[in-house]
Design goal:
heterodimer, A: alpha/beta, six-stranded parallel beta sheet, 12 strands, elongated, B: mainly alpha, 16 helices
Chain lengths: ~325, ~350
């Protein structure tokens, strides 16, 4: 293993040296560290990162962008070290695999004088990053809750399929519960479906077996929603309920665009936020305005009217 | 090690003979019946928690769901009985599902969205399963590498291959093909769903193969003591490779009925199936160190695993965060009950 790593490192260094000899020296190098594309949403993140790299490098010839992907938090920590020591980056855009274990590695990058942009999942310690770009999990829950409450005229029985037990999931559920508080919307039960299609299918099958009347389903995530759709279809209960997912998967957005009765809306949590973060980071070097601070994206409701602007048919997600 | 040989012979006897041989008049042979007892106890618990548990739909859903893990676990019973282990099955299933979907999508242009396309997809699946099993087997036996390591390696390979094929996203089956293929999961025959039929037939064939053929006896012998088996002129490498190929075919069969369920495959497909399959095999009374296998126990083990998840979904009494704890405890207790009786009877 170490021998392969050294080989790769040597190769990378020689390529970098060779390039810098042949081409005009790059003025700024930006390292982007993201989780590997092992599941739908991170697949979308990878796609949007690559697209942004192409676009930004074409736009700004003196900017070079390096993207590295990691399968675990530990791997990502290694990536960060390599970006600093081998690539000599001027700025880092990082979507941390997990907040806790990556806080220290990111701090070390920051200490070496690099501009740091943190995306989506915050670090456990404040004040490390120069720029924070994120979606709004609380709002995703709130917007979903408000839609369901309105659509049901303030009264009805619903079930909730949660994600993997994490802070993200908690924030979403909290926002949702705040939105339906005080109404007659009754949550029959909540179960974890782990942001996964198969689990969504199974949990929904069990909900359908258990409850004779379900007016709406908050699936919270589009992968779960796809499993839910199949379970509902199998039980022949499409007419009695509707499903609200979340994130902005192209398959679901397409359904919303086509006016699917079962999936009337979606709530955005865009994987494209990585592109926003890269854009802003580049602006730090090329614009004359300040870009530090927090940049929180909205979680708009995607309806049939506006679905087209969130539809990326080429993205894997 | 050597004590495992006579042990396996008692296994071959049926429960009635066992009971008759013992001086006590009334006693249940927990070794054989343990998994069934546990299953009944669990079912009773399910009814107590929620009467909806006994609903026909719920029972049918549950059995249909357990078919995937069950079919894979039947293959795993052979591998484990022969002293091997296959950790690659979940990733293999995801990979095969991915290739099937890509293949069928591309065949639509040539053959249209019909039976031909689906049969070619199914054929490809079986072929892939056979090849993948052969690779696991040949590298383990001829390469003399621990099965744990070989299949850990192939697990990583298949998992990343499916992610690569899907571009990090999800592969989705062509809608027209899906509509025709759909009944393979959702359809039923004589009131019983197709996946359950497949599960049943695989189990019957597995039972005959393991208990009434030379191949099955060789599996027991190799798992008990590989050296002795070799001296007894058994082609150990060949038999072991065959068990992995059988496992591959089982994975392919499970994939064939899995694909029409959601019509998609991604890097998240089949995650941890390998552990569920191994758990089903062990709950069923097969020993992890080999030399001793039970097909019907495995079937019960697979149903039990699905049932635990189902029961937890039917109640909100237990915090969701503790689902894993409950599952873990039930698995350990189920296996302990069998082992405890083992010690008492002292074979």
């Amino acid at each position: 293993m170490p021998s392969i790593k050294t080989a790769v490192a040597a190769l990378a260094t020689t390529t970098a040296l060779g390039l810098s000899g042949a081409v005009v020296a790059q003025e700024y190098t930006i390292g982007v560290s993201i989780p590997a594309a092992t599941h739908g949403w991170t697949g979308g993140v990878n796609y949007h990162a690559e697209e942004a790299k192409k676009r930004l490098e074409a736009l700004y010839p003196d900017i070079e962008i390096t993207i590295s992907t990691a399968g675990t938090a530990g791997e990502q920590a290694n990536d960060l070290e390599d970006l600093v020591s081998l690539r000599n980056i001027d700025a880092l855009v990082v979507l941390p695999f997990e907040s806790g274990p990556l806080t220290d590695p990111v701090r070390r990058v920051k200490d070496s004088g690099v501009f740091v942009t943190v995306v989506d999942r915050g670090l456990t310690e404040e004040g490390i990053e120069d720029l924070y770009v994120a979606g709004n999990n609380h709002e995703l829950g709130r917007v979903s809750g408000e839609y369901i409450r309105e659509r049901l005229d303030g009264a009805g029985d619903i079930v909730v399929l949660r994600g993997i037990p994490t802070v993200i999931d908690d924030e979403r559920v909290q926002g949702f519960q705040e939105a339906i508080e005080g109404s007659e919307v009754n949550v029959l039960d909540m179960q974890h479906a782990n942001w996964n299609r198969d689990d969504g299918f199974e949990v929904m099958q069990d909900f359908l077996a258990r409850f004779d009347k379900i007016d709406a389903v908050w699936a919270q995530d589009d992968d779960i929603a796809l499993g839910v759709i199949e379970a509902v279809r199998q039980a022949d209960r499409e007419d009695e309920l509707f499903i609200v997912g979340g994130a902005g998967m192209k398959d679901i957005i397409k359904r919303v665009m086509d006016g699917d009765e079962l999936v009337p809306v979606d709530v955005l949590y865009p994987p494209g936020m990585i592109a926003t973060a890269m854009d802003l980071t580049v602006q730090h070097f090329v614009s004359n305005g300040p870009v530090t601070g927090e940049y929180i994206l909205g979680s708009p409701l995607i309806t049939q009217e506006n679905a087209e602007q969130y539809y990326f048919p080429d993205s894997p997600f | 090690m050597s004590s495992a040989m006579p042990n396996h012979k008692t296994t071959q006897n049926n429960a009635a003979q066992n009971a008759a041989a013992r001086p006590k008049g009334f006693s249940i042979d927990l070794k054989t019946w343990g998994p069934f007892v546990a299953l009944v106890a669990l079912a009773l618990l399910g009814v107590l928690i929620n009467p909806a548990f006994l609903g026909l739909d719920n029972l049918s859903n549950m059995l249909t769901r357990s078919a995937f893990i069950g079919i894979i676990a039947i293959g795993a019973t052979f591998v484990i009985t022969a002293g091997g282990l296959d950790l690659s099955v979940g990733a293999m299933a995801a990979f095969i599902a991915g290739v099937m979907i890509i293949l069928m999508n591309s065949l639509v242009e040539q053959f249209g969205a019909g039976i031909t396309t689906i049969l070619l997809g199914v054929g490809a699946s079986l072929l892939l399963g056979l090849c993948a099993g052969f690779i696991n087997g040949i590298v383990t036996t001829k390469g003399k590498i621990e099965a744990f390591i070989v299949t850990l390696g192939t697990m990583g390979i298949y998992r990343s291959l499916v992610t690569y094929l899907a571009d990090g996203g999800t592969l989705t089956l062509d809608w027209a093909v899906r509509d025709i293929y759909r009944p393979v999961y959702y359809g039923s025959f004589l009131g019983i769903t197709i996946p359950v039929w497949v599960f049943f037939f695989v189990a019957v064939i597995g039972y005959i193969l393991l208990n009434y053929t030379r191949f099955g006896r060789y599996c027991f012998a190799i798992g008990s003591n590989e050296k002795v088996a070799e001296y007894s002129a058994i082609h150990v490498d060949r038999v072991k490779t065959l068990t992995y190929m059988l496992q591959g075919v089982c994975v392919a069969l499970a994939t064939i009925i899995y694909v029409p369920r959601l019509g998609s495959a991604s890097g998240a497909t089949g995650v941890l199936w390998e552990l569920e399959a191994i758990a089903a095999v062990i709950i069923g009374g097969t020993m992890l160190k080999g030399g001793h296998g039970r097909i019907w126990g495995t079937v019960v083990g697979a149903i039990m695993l699905t049932m635990i998840g189902n029961i937890l979904n039917l109640t909100d009494a237990i915090s969701n965060y503790l689902n894993g704890t409950v599952q873990g405890i039930i698995i350990i207790v189920a296996v302990y009950l069998q082992r405890a009786s083992w010690r008492k009877t002292g074979t």
